[in-house]
Amino acid sequence: MNIQQDGAQGFSDRARWHVRSFLPVLGWLVATAVVSVVHRFVPGSRWMLVHFLLLGAAGNAIVTWTWHFTGALVRRPASTTETQHQVVRQVLLNVGVLGVSAGVVGGRLGTTVAGAVVVGGVLAWHGVALGIRARRSLSNRFRRTITYYTAACLLLPVGATLGALMAAGRSDEWQSRLVLAHLALNLLGFVGLTILGTLVTLWPTMLRTRLEEGSERTFAAVLPILLGAIAVTVTGSLLGLTWVVAAGVVLYAAGTVTLLVPLARTAVRKPPWQFSTWSVGAGLVWLLVTLGQLVWLLVRTPRVARVHEDLGLVVSSFAVGFVAQVLFGALSYLLPVMLGGGPAAVRHTTGITQRFGAWRVTVTSLGLLVCLVPVPSLVRVTASVLVLVALCLTPPLLVRAAVVARRLRTHPELTRALPLPERRADGTPTPSHERERGRPLGGLAAGLATILLVVAVGVALDPAVVSRSDAAGGVTPTGRTITAKVTAQGMHFTPDTVTVDPGDRLAITVTNTDADVHDLTLETGEQSGRLARDQSATMDVGIVGRSVEGWCSIVGHRQMGMVLHIRTTGDDRAAAPGVAAALAGGGHGGHAVGGAAAPTVDLHGTFPTDFTARDATLPPAPAGALHKLTLRAQDIDLPVGPGVTRRRWTFNGQAPGPAIRGKVGDRFEITLVNEGTIGHSIDFHAGALAPDGPMRTIQPGESLVYRFTATRSGIWMYHCSTMPMSVHIASGMAGAVIIDPPGLPRVDKEYLVVQSELYLGAGSEPADPAKIAAHRPDAIVFNGTSGQYDARPFTAKVGERVRFWVLDVGPDEPTTFHVVGTQFDRVFKEGAWLLRAAPGEPDAPGGSQALDLGAAQGGFVEMTFPEAGRYPFVNHMRSRAESGAHGIVQVR
Fold first, then answer.
1. d(C-alpha 424, C-alpha 421), whole Å
2. Where does the pLDDT of residue 10 fall: very low under 50, low under 70, confident under 90, or very high at 90 and above?
3. CB under 8 Å to 55, separation ≥6 — which residues?
4. Which residues of 382-418 are buried (b: 16+ CB within 10 A; e: fewer)?
5. In the predicted model, what is the mean pLDDT of residues 257-277?
C-alpha cells in the first residue's frame, strides 16, 4: 500500500511539474495573442509577435520538453541537482526574454544586450547539460536525437549575439546581413533542428507505430547536412552573397526532405486522424513552403540589403504555419499523457485537446495561405482574424484538459464513471484512428467552407473589385498576348504609355527600381500591390479594346507624375501630361488620390468643453551636451478644427512634431522608427551633413539613427523628406528644433508657434495633393489646429517678458507674425538679431510690429504687455489669419 502511495505521489509530482512548465508557454502565447489583436496601437508589434512566439513560447517549450525527452530516451532520471539546475535555467530564460523584449521595444540597448547574453548563456548551458546527461547514460540508439538538441542549443548564443549587434544599429547593408544570419541561426538552427530532432521519435509515437528499419541511420546522416547548410547560409549572409544564401537554404531543404521521407511513409502506413498529428503534419508542410519562399525571395532579389524588406511573409509562414502548428499539435498530444491519471483519464483529456481539430488545422493553413497571396485587403484581414481564432482555441483547451485531469486524479470515482472505449466485434478495443476516421472529414469540409465564405464575401465587398470594369470595350479578341515591361523610378513609369492593337490581351510586368514603395493601379481595378525596391509583379489587364489609365496609388505619387497610359492603335487621343492629367483625375478603387473632392467641413465652429489645446509652452533647453530622442512615424487621428478630426501622419503622434531644444555645440542622436503605413524619412535643418544616408526613406517596420551637431543658433525646421515632400509636410510631418543663441537672456514665459497649412483629403487620406498643387489650403493654422488658442488662450501677466518662437513649416504659405496691441522690442530672425539693446544699455527706442517668414524660416520676438486684456496674435496676411491662423494671449 505504501509503495502504491509513493508511486501515486511521484506521478502527481510529475504532473504538477509539467503543468508548471506549461505556464510560461501559456503566458507567452497569451501575450502573443494580445499583441496580435492590438498590434496597430503597439510600437514594435511586428517584432514582439515574432519573438513572443518563437523565443518566449517556443523557447520555453524547447527547454522543457528537450529535458524531458532526453531523460526518457536515455532511460536515466534526472538527479535532484540536475532538476534544480533545470528550474534555474527556465527562470533565467524568461528573465532574458523579458529583458530583450523590454530593451528592443523601449529602445534601451544595454537592456537588450543584457537580455541577449542571458538567453544565449542559458541555452548554451542547457545544450551542454543535455550532452552530459546523454554521455553518462548507457548507449542508446535514440541518443542521436539529443545531438540535434545540443547542436540547436549551441547555435542560439551565436544568433543572440547577432541580434544584439542588430540592436546596436549598423548601416543598412550590414543590418540586412545580420538579419539574414540571425534568422538562419535562430529559426533554421535553434527552432528547426530541435523540432526535426524531436519529431523523429515523437511522430511515430503519436501515430502509435514504429519507424521503418534504417530510419535511424538516415536520421544521423542528415544532421551534418543541416548544420553545413546553416553554416553556408550564415556565411553567405555575412558576405552579402544572396546566391550563397540561396544555396545554403536549398541544401537545408534537401536535408529536411530526406529526414521527412520516413515520417511520410509512416503516415501512409498509419494515417493521422487527430488534431495533434494533423497539426504537426501541416506544420511540416509549411516548413517546406517557407524554405521555398525564402529561396524564391533570394533568387529574385540580388542585393542582401533588399532581402530583409520582404522577409515578413517568410517569417510569418515559419512562425504560424510551421512553429505554431507543430507546437500546438505536440502539446495537445503530450500534455494529457504527462498529466496521466490512467488510460481512461488520458483518453478523456486527449479528447478535450482534440476538439474541432480538423477545422482548426484547415482554417489555420488555408487562412494563412490566403494571407500570403494577392487578395483584397478585406479578405486578408478577415482571413488573418480567422487564423488567430483557430490558433487561440488551443491554449484554452489545454488549460481545460489540465483542470479536468487534476479533478480526475483527486476524485477517482469520476474516472470510473468515464465511458469505456469502443470495441470491435471480436471484443478488442477499436484503435483511435478507426474511431475518429469519419469525424475529420466534417471538420475539414467546415474549415474549407469557412475560408471560401470569407473569400467570397471579401471579394464582393472590396471596392476595388466591385468597381472593376472591363477593358475590352466589346472588341473581338485577336488571340495574341502582349507583355509590356514597365519600371517605376523617380515618380515616373517608364515607359509611361503602352500601345497594343485592339483585341490583344495585355500583361504588364511592373518593377520598382526606386528606393520608395510604389504600386500600379488601373482604372479597371487591377492592382500590383505595393512593391519595395527590386520587387516585381505581373498584372493581367485582359483583352484591351479601349484606353485605360493607371497610376501609383500611394498618396501624392499620382500628382507627381506617376501615371501610365494604355492606348490602342488608331486611338488619336494624345496622352495628357502626367501632372496635369493627374490633377484633373479622380480617385478609383477606394484610393483617394487627389482628384476626389474632400467633404466640406467647418473649421470655425465652437470647440467642445473637454477640448485640450496643444501645449505651446516651451521649456528651457535640457542639461547636457548629448540629446537622444526617438521619433516614431505614426498614422494618428487628430483634431484639426472645432469638432473636426482627420487622419494625420505624425512624429510621435503630434502634428507638428515634438519640439527639440538645445545649445550651440550640442550633439543630437535621433532614432527614427517607421510605424506608419508607407515610407517616411527625416531631414533636420539644424544639422549640416550629406543627406544620402541619414535622410533616406525607410519602409514600415524599419528604423535609422540620425546624428548631427548643432553648430549655429536659430529655430530650425525638421520634416519628412520623402517625395512628394509637400504631401508629407502638409500631412503633419514637420516640427521645430530650437538652438539657443549664445547668451540668450531668460524671460518669464516662452511659447512656440508653428504655422502650417491644412489640405484636407477625402476619407482617411491626410492631405489632398491636388489642393496642394493648386495652392488651395482649407486653413492656415497654428500648432496644427484651427483657432485652438481662441478657445484655450495663452496666459501672461502685466509686465512679464514673453518670448514667441515662430516657425513657418509650410509647405508653401508665408507668415507675418503679429501680436495685436503690442510692439516687439527684441527680434531674432534666421540666426541674426534684428532688434535688441546693446549689453548693459537700455532697450533701443525702435520697435517692430511683425516677423515676416517664408516657408522653412523662423525666429522669435519678445514683448511686455502694458495692461490686462486679451491680445490677439495672428498672421497679419489677413486672409491667412481669417482661415485659422489666430489666437489670444490672456493677460492679467
1. 10
2. very low
3. 97, 100, 119, 186
4. bbbebbbebbbbbbebbbebbebbbebbeeeebbeee
5. 88
Residue 556: the pLDDT is 66
301: CB partners within 8 A, 6+ apart: 242, 307, 310, 534, 535
Beta bridge partners of 626: 667
- State the pLDDT at residue 584: 32
368: left (phi over 0), alpha (psi -120 to 50) or beta: alpha
Q: In this structure, what DSSP letter does residue 184 have? A: I
Report the amino acid identity of residue 343. P
Number of CB atoms found within 10 A of residue 590's CB: 18
Angle between helices 2-37 and 377-392 (to 10 degrees): 160
The answer to whether 516 touches 510, Cβ cutoff 8 Å, is no
Question: Does 739 score more than 90 pLDDT?
Answer: yes
Contact 664, 656 (CB under 8 A): no
How much is the mean pLDDT over the chain? 80
> For position 717, what pLDDT does the model report?
93
Q: How confident is the model at residue 439 (pLDDT cuts 50, 70, 90)?
A: low
855 backbone dihedrals φ, ψ, rounded to 5°: -60, 135
Which of 593-597, 802-806, 848-852 has the highest average model confidence (pLDDT)? Answer: 802-806
> At which residue does the C-alpha cell 505595393 appear?
530
Q: Tell me how far CA of residue 320 lies from CA of 290, 688, 806, in angstroms.
A: 11, 46, 51
What nine digits make up the cell of 104? 528592443
CA distances (Å), 554 to each of 89, 290, 379, 591, in order? 49, 29, 21, 8
Q: Which residue has the cell 528537450?
A: 66
Q: Which three cell numbers stand for residue 307?
A: 532581402
The predicted-structure confidence for 124-168, as pLDDT tens digits, reads as follows 998 888 888 777 654 555 567 788 888 988 998 898 888 878 766
| Phi-psi label, residue 701: left if phi above 0, alpha if psi -120 to 50, beta otherwise | left
Task: Give yes or no for residue 253 having a pLDDT over 90.
Answer: yes
CB 728 within 8 A of CB 720: yes
